[in-house]
Each structure stands twice: as C-alpha cells, then as structure tokens.
C-alpha cells in the first residue's frame, strides 16, 4: 500500500469507528487503540500535506447528528480536545503556548469526565435547551431527555447572566450502572458494556420517561456567552457552581506545569475512588483573554489539553473472594484472579476494598472482571463484564466472622470497613500491631524486620510489643537465619528505641485512627500518657481536629486492661511516655485560637515554621478562608493566594513579624 492509500484506509477505518462509537454507542475497539490509529493518521498527514482533506477524522469532531431529534445549529461551536499521553506532550504544548501569549500563564486542572458531551442553554435563569455536540456545528435537541436528569437545575439562583450556554458531560455513575445492569440481567436482557456508552445511548432514547429511569448525572465545566463578566476559567467554575450547577470541586488552579503534573499523578491513582468514570485530566489556560488569543484549530481549542490516563486494563476470571485481616482488625476483601499479564507484571490478586465496593460493582465469584493498574498501588477491579455472567450466579455474601479467629465481625455506623474486635487474640492483628510498632515512622527499631516479628510471634517468644523489651539474645540466636551479629543488632535496636519521643511512641501503640498527625496533637495536648489515659470522650473531642471517631477509639483502647498493662510495662522499661522537659520549655499557648496559612519561601524550612506555630498552640491550615487569622508570606508567595487574602481582608505578615509575635 502506498502512503496515499494508507491514509485513505486509515480515514475510512476511523470514520467507521466514529460511527460505531458516537451514533450506535457500540464501539468495537478500545479508546486507546482508536487514539493510536488517529495519531498514526495525524503523523502521515503532517508528513504528506498533499493528501490534505477537510473531512479527515483528524480535523473534525467525531460525532454526528442522528435525525431522530430536531437538529439545532450551535450558537457557539462545540469542540473536541487535543490529547496527550506523557509529560513531554504537555511540555511541548506549554512551549507552544508561551510563544503565543504574553505574561504569566496559569492553568485550571479539571477531571475529564467520561460521558457524552452536552451544551445547555439558560435564559433568564431558566433551563431552555440541551443539545448534543453532534458534529460540533450542529447537534441533536435532547432537551426533554436532559430535563429528567436531577442534577440539571431547571431554575438558577444567584446573579446569573441573562443568557448563556454551559458545556458539560452527561455521565452514568458506577453505582447506577451496576444497578441498571443487574436489573437487565435479571430480566434476561443483555447488559451494557460500560458507563460511557450507556450514558450516551440513554441520551438518545426517544421516550423521556425511559431516560428518567436511568440514574444519569450532568457534570459541568464551561461557560459560553457574550459579556459574562468573567476573567478566568477557575472563576467561571466557581460562578457556575454558585448558580446551582453540579461542578465537581476537584478542579484546582495550578501556577505552573509542575503543579499540573502533581494533580495528574494524584488523580491517576485516586480516580477510582470517584463515583463516576474519568479518563484523564483537562488542563486549561486559566486567563480567558489568553484563551481568546490562542483560539482554536478546526477541531480543538489551543488553550486546552487533555491528559489521558494510561488505562492499563485487562479482563480475567475471578476465581475466589478471600478476606484479609489487617493490624487494626480491618477486613479487606481480596479478589483471587486467574493470573494475567498487566503492566509488565503478572497479577493474581486485586483489592476489592470493602463490602460497599463489592456491592457497588456487583462483583461475584466466577465473573469475568476488568482489572486495572494505576501508579504504584495494587491492581483494582473496576468492573464486571456482565455479558459473560453466569445467569445462575448469586450476589456475593459478605463474611460475618473473622476468617483468622472466628470472632463475629463488627461494622460501625458510617464506616465502610468491617473489623474483627478480637484485638489481642487475632493472630494477624497481634503480628501486624508489633510490625507497626517497630516500623520506621514509629519506634524505628533497627535490626528488626516484619518477617522476624512474625517469626518471634509464631515461635511464642513474644505476644505483644511490650514483650520485645524482655527478649534475650539466647532466645533469638537459635532462630532461623539469626547469627551472633544480627542478634546483637536486634537487641541493641530495641534498646535504642527507648529514646524515641513520646509522640512517636503514641503513634506506635497502634490505636485505631491515631496516625502520625493525631498522635502529635494528642502528645502536645496531654503532655504525658497518664493524662491521655484519663481523658474522657468529651474532653478528647474538645481538642481541635479530634472528632468523635478518634475520641471513641482512644477511650476504647484504654478501656482494655491488656492495653493498659502493656503501656505500664513500656513505662517500666524506660520508654518516653511524656513530652521531654526541653520540649515543654519551648511551648506556649501564645497563639491559641489563631489559624495561620504559610506560603512562600522562608529563611528556615517551612516545616520548622509550622512546628513553631503548633508548639505555641496555633493552628496551621493549607488554604486561606475567612477563618484564617494571618497569612505568613515568604518570598515568591503565589499571586492568587495574595489576592485571596487581600479580598478577605486577612493580614499578611512577614516571617519577622511572626517571630516578634512569639517574643
Ligand atoms: N473506541 C472507539 O471506537 C472510539 C471511537 C471514537 C472515539 N473514541 C474515543 O473518544 C475520543 C474522542 O472523543 P472526543 O472528540 O469527545 O474527545 P475527548 O473525549 O478526548 O475530549 C473532548 C471532550 O471531553 C469532554 N470533557 C470532559 N470533561 C471535560 C472538562 N473538564 N473540560 C472540557 N471538556 C471535557 C468534552 O465533552 C469534550 O467534548 C477518542 O480519543 C477516543 O478515546 C473511541
Ligand atoms: Zn480475628
């Protein structure tokens, strides 16, 4: 095939897949494969401009009008987005932008909602019309269908403009999707393949009362109109939200590309915690003037770029669901899979998180499941291939007893996780708690690792962390792989841990919900373990940022005789169970009741500054709000923070001003 024929064939192939995807909602290849083919075509076209064609899929928005609805010409054209898959792609995009606009460029980062593109028109605060993207110039009038979606406001509140359009995405959240499919399977109908295509298909149903039965949602992201009086994309999101639109608040303002990348990396890992599908992040030049300067290509705005997550996804068979018991007794359901190659490793197990997740996805033993890997975390099951479900399969019944010790499981109200309450008798809890105790951020016992802890417990040499301090060299020498030197190191490591400060000992105790930060708070507040032991739930709850859940957990911990005995023993061995005199001397309550936001670069490390605030009973907060007492500004403080503080009338002080406050 020569190049011309190759280009022609690719175009035809892509037209065909566009039709399957946008019109029939039944794609036959993955999005990734589609995008690769599109990229290939793009490259060929760039290298061979002689084959230019205005109708090429590289130059046109992929959809079409369906003729099943009234056709509406868009007043404001609707565009697609350019895609990037790597840091380099984004950097190149940024370079291009910088050449075209003057001044500083900030970005709004939003999630890329995976559904069907829609434009809503509002006049005098009332919902008037909803039109699909279609081919970008014209779309289908689906007003009656969209009216049935509860999150689409029919009447707006606040100071909205007289007339405007707002762009958004109609999505089908996971939970609704699973329900919908379960009902279909039960009724002997074919289940839907994925939420995106189902959302898009639902929108095109002829009977609005059918649409009303689909739990669709509408997420909005872009205002269009004349004289809206807006300056930035971020501001327009806030405004739209204030008028009553569902604008997800995961969006952030990023001052440069490194912040953009941070956002991307975060959501690449955390996107599965969202109730709906996202396939990436959309980065937009924040300033609307700059956006205007940059303009559009035939297909996409130049001021925006989608970053698509690499969805490394496979399907495999779920053989069995088993349950793991963690050190705090929390139960995690685990999917045992038919081994499958994914992202360079063989995956055999995937987390199912908790009972809600199993229910949400409606996962059952024997299902074909979609497994995905994001970042460093263990793979997740993100859905079920309902088409291949055995019609006789039964919903998963969650266990009621601990798989390790047989104790009846507990699930507190409002909590996702079940747990085993047999704190001191459940083997994985006993081992896990000691492993946590010796870990680096806790007692940091050198020469002792997690496997040795398990060995010591299984050999009956220790049963809790206090027992560590009774260990003798002669006892551990006979253990497997233990030599003279490693035994000495172990004993020395345990001895050295007696100098670890109180707050870390408190963290090491492994009280549920008492993480590093909470441990620090409690240590600073109570100063010693006796005071903490005596504290009532009410007293604990009075402390800043200590909620009911933590307070209950602390009280519960000290209500166990066994725990109190262990703590007494630790005290007896000489562990630090009170704040040191030296540290006490540096503490005051001078900043009590005051909240500080620290921003910029200072003469001392920022963490030291924060520690000084906390040591003097002040509070550190990450973002400026009306509750902020002072903003301590260092060099290079971000302009948006500066503006926000000024707007709210919050005093901005220097490092020297702050130090003077402490004098
Ligand atoms: N598998 C297939 O056969 C097949 C066929 C055609 C298209 N596709 C997929 O569809 C993609 C093309 O679709 P497209 O043209 O809609 O582009 P796109 O989905 O890559 O991006 C553009 C759309 O993103 C949406 N969007 C979601 N969140 C947004 C936000 N916060 N801000 C702005 N826009 C947001 C908008 O509706 C916009 O129209 C392809 O890259 C491919 O992945 C797949
Ligand atoms: Zn148990």
TrEMBL record:
Ligand binding (NAD(+)): 31-35, 80-81, 110, 133, 169, 284, 308
Entry coiled-coil feature ranges: 522-549
Amino acids binding Zn(2+): 402, 405, 420, 426
Active site per the UniProt annotation: 112 (n6-amp-lysine intermediate)
Cross-referenced InterPro entries: BRCT_dom, BRCT_dom_sf, DisA/LigA_HHH, DNA_ligase, DNA_ligase_CS, DNAligase_adenylation, DNAligase_N, Hlx-hairpin-Hlx_DNA-bd_motif
GO molecular function terms attached to this record: DNA ligase (NAD+) activity
Keyword entries, A-Z: Coiled coil, DNA damage, DNA repair, DNA replication, Ligase, Magnesium, Manganese, Metal-binding, NAD, Zinc
SUPFAM superfamilies named in the record: BRCT domain, DNA ligase/mRNA capping enzyme, catalytic domain, Nucleic acid-binding proteins, RuvA domain 2-like
SMART domains according to UniProt: BRCT (SM00292), HhH1 (SM00278), LIGANc (SM00532)
One Pfam family, short name: HHH_2
BRCT domain location: 586-663
Cofactors named for this entry: Mg(2+); Mn(2+)
Function according to Swiss-Prot or TrEMBL: DNA ligase that catalyzes the formation of phosphodiester linkages between 5'-phosphoryl and 3'-hydroxyl groups in double-stranded DNA using NAD as a coenzyme and as the energy source for the reaction. It is essential for DNA replication and repair of damaged DNA.
NCBIfam families: dnlj (TIGR00575), PRK07956.1 (NF005932)
Name by which UniProt lists this protein: DNA ligase
Organism: Salinimicrobium gaetbulicola
Gene name in the database record: ligA
């Amino acid at each position: 095939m020569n190049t011309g024929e190759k280009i022609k064939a690719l175009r035809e192939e892509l037209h065909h897949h566009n039709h399957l995807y946008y019109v029939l909602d039944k794609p036959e290849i993955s999005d990734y494969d589609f995008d690769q083919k599109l990229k290939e075509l793009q490259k060929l076209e760039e290298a061979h401009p002689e084959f230019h064609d205005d109708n090429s899929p590289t130059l046109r928005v992929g959809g079409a009008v369906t003729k099943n609805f009234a056709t509406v010409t868009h007043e404001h054209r609707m565009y697609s987005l350019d895609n990037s898959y790597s840091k380099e792609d984004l950097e190149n995009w940024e370079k291009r932008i910088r050449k075209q606009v003057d001044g500083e460029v900030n970005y709004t980062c939003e999630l890329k909602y995976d559904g069907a593109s829609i434009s809503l028109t509002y006049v005098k605060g009332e919902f008037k019309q909803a039109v699909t993207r279609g081919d970008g110039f014209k779309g289908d009038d689906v007003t009656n269908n969209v009216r049935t979606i509860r999150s689409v406001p029919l009447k707006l509140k606040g100071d909205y403009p007289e007339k405007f359009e707002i762009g958004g995405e109609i999505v089908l959240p996971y939970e609704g999707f699973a329900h919908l499919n379960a009902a279909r399977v039960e009724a002997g109908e074919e289940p839907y393949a994925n939420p995106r295509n189902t959302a898009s298909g639902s929108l095109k149903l002829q009977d609005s009362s059918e649409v009303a039965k689909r739990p669709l949602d509408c997420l909005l992201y872009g205002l269009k109109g004349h004289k809206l009086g807006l300056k930035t994309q971020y501001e327009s999101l806030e405004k739209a939200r204030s008028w009553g639109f569902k604008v997800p608040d995961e969006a952030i303002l990023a001052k440069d590309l490194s912040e953009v990348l941070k956002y991307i990396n975060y959501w690449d890992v955390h996107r599965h915690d969202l109730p709906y599908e996202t396939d990436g992040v959309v980065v937009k030049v924040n300033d609307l003037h700059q956006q205007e300067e940059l303009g559009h290509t035939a297909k996409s705005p130049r001021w925006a770029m989608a970053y698509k997550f690499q969805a490394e996804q496979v399907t495999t068979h779920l053989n069995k669901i088993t349950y793991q018991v963690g050190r705090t007794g929390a139960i995690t359901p685990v999917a045992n899979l038919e081994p499958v190659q994914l992202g360079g490793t063989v995956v055999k197990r995937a987390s199912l998180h908790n009972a809600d997740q199993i229910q949400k996805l409606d996962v059952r033993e024997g299902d074909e499941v979609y497994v995905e890997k994001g970042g460093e975390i263990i793979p997740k099951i993100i859905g079920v291939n309902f088409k291949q479900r055995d019609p006789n399969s039964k919903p998963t019944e969650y266990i009621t007893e601990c798989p390790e010790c047989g104790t009846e499981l507990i699930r507190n109200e409002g909590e996702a996780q079940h747990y085993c309450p047999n704190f001191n008798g459940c083997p994985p809890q006993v081992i896990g708690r000691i492993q946590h105790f010796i870990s680096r951020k806790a007692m940091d016992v050198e020469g002792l690792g997690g496997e040795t802890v398990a060995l010591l417990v299984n050999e009956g040499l220790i049963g809790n962390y206090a027992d560590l301090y009774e260990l003798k060299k002669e006892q551990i020498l006979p253990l497997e792989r233990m030599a003279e030197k490693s035994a000495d190191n172990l004993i020395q490591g345990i001895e050295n841990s007696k100098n670890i400060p109180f707050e870390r000992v408190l963290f090491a105790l492994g009280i549920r919900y008492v993480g590093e930060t909470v441990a620090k708070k409690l240590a600073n507040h109570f100063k010693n373990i006796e005071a903490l032991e005596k504290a009532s739930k009410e007293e604990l709850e009075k402390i800043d940022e200590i909620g009911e859940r933590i307070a209950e957990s602390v009280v519960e911990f000290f209500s166990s005789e066994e725990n109190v005995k262990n703590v007494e023993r630790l005290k007896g061995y000489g562990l630090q169970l009170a704040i040191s005199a030296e540290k006490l001397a540096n503490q005051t309550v001078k900043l009590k009741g005051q909240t500080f936001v620290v921003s910029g670069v200072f003469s001392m490390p920022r963490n030291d500054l924060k520690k000084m605030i906390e040591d003097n009973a002040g509070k550190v907060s990450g973002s400026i709000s009306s509750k902020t007492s002072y903003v301590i500004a260092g060099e290079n403080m971000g302009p948006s923070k500066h503006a926000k503080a000024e707007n709210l009338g919050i005093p901005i002080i220097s490092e020297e001003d702050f130090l003077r406050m402490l004098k």
